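Sequence decides. Consider this:

===
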Amino acid sequence: MNDDLIWQTKLAARLHDPAEKALVLLRDPEGHEGGTSRALHRDLGFHNLPVKEWLDPDNAQVLDTVLFKHGIPIAMYKTVKRADWWAAGADRPQWPVDTVPTKSGETTTSRVVNWARVRWTEVPVLIHPLTGTPFDLGHLADTDIGDIKARSFEHFSRLIVKEGEHVDWKRTLLAFWRFGPELREGKDSGQLGHLWPLLPAETRVPDHSIWDHLDLTSAFAGGFASDPQGEVALLALSIGPVQSFIAAARSTSDLWAGSHLLSRLSWEAMKVVCERLGPDAILFPRLRGIPQVDVWLRDEMKLPAQWFAGCNWTERTTDANPLFAAALPNRFVAVVPASQSREIAQAVEARVRTWLQDLGKNIVDRLLEAAGLADGTDKHCHRQMREQLQGFPEVHWAAVPFSLIRARDESKQTDLDVTQLSEAMAPFFGVAPGQACGFLETPAWEVLQKEAKFADGTTFFSPKPGVLYPAVYDLAERVLAAAKSVRSFEQVEQKGWRDSLTGESEWLTDDPVLLNVPPGKRKSRRDEGFREGDHVETLWTHLADEKPAWAKKGEHLGALSAIKRLWPSLFAEEVARATGQPVGQVPRFVVSTHTMALAYQLDQWLDAGAPMGGELRDRLADTDSVPLPRKLARKYGQRDVLEFAKRLPGLLDAVREGENERALRKVEGLIKEAFALADGGQKEVRLETYYALLLMDGDHMGRILSGDARYAITYQESFHPEVQQRFKEQAQHHDTIKAYGEQKRALSPNRHLAISGALNDFALHVVPEVIESEHLGRVLYAGGDDVLAMLPVVDVCSAMRRLRCGYSGHDPEQAALDWRAVRRETRMVVKEGYAFLRGQLMRMMGEKATASCGAVIAHHQAPLAMVLRELRAAEQRAKKEGGRDAFSITVIKRSGGVLSLTAKWGEPLDVLVALRNFLAEPAVSRRAVYNSLLWLQDLPPDASAGMLGSLLAYQFGRQTSRIEVWHKHEGPLLSNRIAALACKEKARLDWLARFMGVAEFLAREARVNVKDAEPATAKLSR
């Protein structure tokens, strides 16, 4: 089949149900399949397609008058119908039907029984697919059918792309996929515009959108049409390694570059599938709305640029641009033609490695040019780059064909034979061939494989192959895991001195003789102490002079480290081109740890007007500016004093690098005086030198993706509330039907699309909002359920809590808000499994999904590699010691001491913040915790909560000079809450000591936001 016919089939699949189906079902005299869909078929010219291309091979003599059905050729119609059956079988519960005679009375047809029908516009409810929580949209019955259909038709008509007089089928398919869910014109900005992306595919089971169903139908149809036998397979593919590649970092810029480059490699892998089969062929992750995908659609697929004008990636000209977000995971799952699965996987591997080799050559050319060593020839460093990149990244894949499932009734795709599927699964479950295993031995399959009847004689639809998606997916994942365990290694000989970051490969050089020169002998002529004959210059010593952002003094990097180091600069050029800015005008992605440590004090200083003495002003005038946290830039962007804030951390760093202790003390004194002026000039100010790194990861994501019953809702919970009630009435006398309703829903593509959509919105919208708008932090990585961010110490507790709430879509502090009042909220609202932000309603992971978080507070001069090791250890403690759904905070003191605290979310974090706020009061002795810890040593290890609470209250009361402060923070209540938490731990006194120690560290000056330092009595009372 030629390419046009593939894209035509996919378009027909996208039009088999109109987008407005839920709004017109049971209301439109033309039926939901008439109206808009039929009109668009005509507009696209399906009726003018060459009929001979679509002759049914089983009925080649059929008359021209019946070669079309619903406006498309019969063979295409059959392909789309089969795809629709498979998609519906995979995504929806079965439904009872009865038979009715046709008008002629000669035959009968099936229809859904009356009790299972829903007039959705009268009771518009959405069901959260991951929690079963209903979301009531109000009343939509007064929506005019004619107006809805006209607006839908007009919307899609504008998305038809033509070359001259002819439809460009591929580009039109891409346009329908990308912009179909968006009604962005002026008149569509009302209720329908907000509701449009959420319209359900099935009014009786409103837990997935019409767009999910159309995507899946198009994926199946494209796969069927592209395969000579009409067969499809599920392709699971991953690239790596992940952790080791990201972890090799000396700066926050390296850290960001590793994660972002891996995300970009993932997109290069996915692009192979998108080019051949369309982005809807990829079921996980969901690609719609990902900025990097939009750039491809606009620049390579040539969709009209004006369609992307409202996207924020086209407007932001700084590294706040969402293109800088590493939004894609290192794996994907796609529906592909079965006969092409191997060739597609091999093409993916070739594409990512070729892309990286091309990037590597560009990197070496840039390095040589910057060092003044370029002469147009192929140098030793070019060969090193090629050799060190061989076999990277690793690409693992597995494909499982759906042909393992056979429909004995081909005409209806029912009566399923799973013999071959069972035999393929057996080795991975350690059972004998033919023995049920995996999904095939679950209660869900026991119910779904049988045709059950109600007492009134009505029956469920018979299961179609799509219902076995869970088994095919599980088998693909197991085969992929097996493929990863068989790794081939190509030994690359490395003779000379190694890379400064990884210690694994030779550093790049234009002269291989230099690889034998030890580090102490490599210097630039500009370096102090350089002696001719004793020292030699290298590519990297030149770069340290000419391009210090690419190489620090003494650094010598290998291939992968060099690519990561230069990637921020190269990608900034890409963003400049994407946004139409002059190359070089988009800043690199980097905020120093020192700047982050000072962020809160800079905010307080700027808020007071940035007062300073003349000497400091003069020093800042001669200093280069550095990037600031985004919230500061946004908050003070219109004030001239912001430029002083940009230069202040740079001044400190420049003086410190000069290694003149006296000059450093002088500059620190000037800055302390300036900060003291902002604080009224009544006390001496200490400069904050600590910052925080935060790492959050979703819990049990593998189980959630695999459809584990602990994270699934029942079939009955996915029903519309009206149908739930009627179903219970019908099923109360039928055990099989009742069991079906109570059975946990099987894994489905809809579940994967829902999870992927939630993770995309979390990473692209919620995480930046929490870290960079609500707090003074910086997102280093946000991809799916993984978040890595840098924050000032003052914000770390609040940001951790808010991220956790945003991930599940539930913040107890916002639970009482009425949805009708939400639009008036200026900050993001998260409740009932959703997040509402600036007019956009986004479905999150739901309350059943939990996340664990590690945080490290360290001195800004602490080696980043060491801090990252502690950060990963903290996250693992949260998952293991905390039992998941927990947090762990580690404090690395400059003096060498280490404190750590692990606890569950909720009350422990609230009480920690309350204790911090109390200890931060000037009336509370700085020795309050120290003195309290002394008497802990004399207590019995099994001290009761009552004893601990009363002793804590006594000690804290003694350490408070003003009784009103003690009462303001409800000292006795706070002490009892701390004691109660400690008594839940095995080593209660040790945990209590760590809890108070962390709180005391957080309570020191410049680590408590005065606006947040009010007593948390409301939280404690809850």
